[in-house]
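[job 4471] stage=fold_predict status=RUNNING
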Amino acid sequence: MRLPLAIVAATALVLQVVEGGIDTHKYKDGDHIELWVNKVGPYANPQEAYEYYALPYCAPQTKHHPDEGGRFNEWKGHNMGEILGGHALRHSGHDITFLKSSSQPEKCTTPALTKEHADHFKKAAQHRWFYQMYLDDLPVWGMVGEMLPKADKFSVKEKDDLDRLDHMTDLDDAAIAGLHPYVYTVRNLVISYNNDQIVKVDLTSDPKSLVEVKEGAKLDFALYVQFEKTSEEFSSRFNRYLDHDFFKHPIHWFSVFNSFMMVLFLMGLVALILLRTLKKDYARYGLVHDLEDGDDDEKEALHHDKVEDAGWKQVHGDVFRAPALLPLFAALIGTGWQLVVLTLGVILFAVLGPLHGEVHEERGEVMQAILICYSLSSVVSGFMSGKFFKEYYPTVARRGNNDGAAMQWQMAMGATVMLLPTVTVLITSFLNAVSITYGTIYTFPFLTLLKIFCLWVFVSVPLCIVGTLLGRHANKSTTTTFPCRVNAIPRPIPEDVPWYGKPQGLIPLAGLLSFGSIFIELYYVLTSLWNYKFYHVYGFLLGVYAILTIVVGMTSIIVVYFCLNAENYLWQWTAFGSGASTSAYVFVYGIYYFVFKTQMHGFLQTCFYFGYMTLIAVNLGLLCGTLGYASANRFVRAIFQNVKVD
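[job 4471] inference complete, writing structure tokens
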């Protein structure tokens, strides 16, 4: 009874209801609308984001002004997904009333800028800093300022700030010679509504309000608010943030079709191996077995035709021998199956968005889904790890290594519990330390870390232990489930084999084929992560995930077949490596993407980019490695099931 209660209590730490209830997004005439400020930072570096008031902006002269005891700078309630996603919403201090357009702006004046404050604004203008706000859960963006010649020598046409940021580049110190920092001081907020709901929010900066920043200057900021009636439906209000031209480009469709054709090719190749090559192997092995039982004339004919009992059948006594480092391999397989279930669960949750609410419309919803799915899927990792270990451990004990069986079990279970969390904690701890040093909003608060720790200790770990016990006792039979006996003495592995019989020659090719089936979709995913786009084509992602599963399985089967044919029976690590090698290509592609597709710079952003890419590569390697092993395992069992063994 205590375990279910602990699971419910810990899961409740994640399922927090923000603002004390479900927001209906409906307003009556005269209702207050909260404008929240989120972050400010350089456009080129997504993770170099600071709290909005890290820049010396002033508080608006409203009832929310600090001197009036209002809500200015008050924290908005955040769930764990929002915090982990780097959201830090605070009350802007503006007093906006539904359907009340302001003829007079809300104003404020900064104190005389110190040299430090002036340098902050200068840095923001030089490096394309932007700020982000939220109104009724709709994001808006604005530019902080620009580097320009003297005011009487430039002309700027009013245009959407975010669109301008996409086409601007950072300026180095040499490029700003003769330019001066200017800050936008007047903003126009246009709120479009349909009946009692807000469907669109636009924010523009008035180019006529650009004021040069210098020490001792006082900046007068103003915000104009205007309401406009529209016929757009509330349900489609997020469509303007979804770049359909980018995500549904013909190239995207073509890439999926191309991957599908690769699947057909590989399935045909595997079918050729199974239906023709293996059929000949079975016939040859059957012929050898029959001739060896025949008379002397038949044996002479056997010798004359040079029909040899060679190839993969020769290793039938060793093919089901336990892989090296059995506890570690069991942990890798268990963790990999957990990631398979986790990934499928999160993608299906996103695909079903029309039923429960689109995930891209709610801040941090995908992150919360990942946390919950990871915690609950821990039972899968324990079960698959325990089942695998139980299956292969007797082949280890047969060699006289029966001592320390309990210790081996504990090592396997402990590695399953600790493997992925340890890698994740090491990387995120380093990134968190860097974030603390720079003072960004991507620093994880202590309370959030404590909640995640409790979620892991009281949900993930117990479920993993329960899963391990279930896997250990899943098969009550004391006999092995392998089709062939395992010899007591290992057979030597031939060394004089061609390159296509060696794992080191085949594994990179297998990873390349798997990577080729996903690299276009990988580009879209990375662009969503690092270039401020909302990923929403989860149907594409589900299809590519299915294609990846098939391609990894097919390539692993081919690699294992060639290795077994070369009488190399160490196929488990080979199969896992065939799938896991995909992650190496993904990481290399990440380097290419960083250098040629982004303008990221600086130690902080570089650390975050490659830290997250390392996590992506590690998780993808575990997932694909497990899929490769699972496919090869079924293949090996199938072919040795039908072989005549002496």
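[job 4471] summary: The first strand starts at residue 32 and ends at 33.
[job 4471] exit 0
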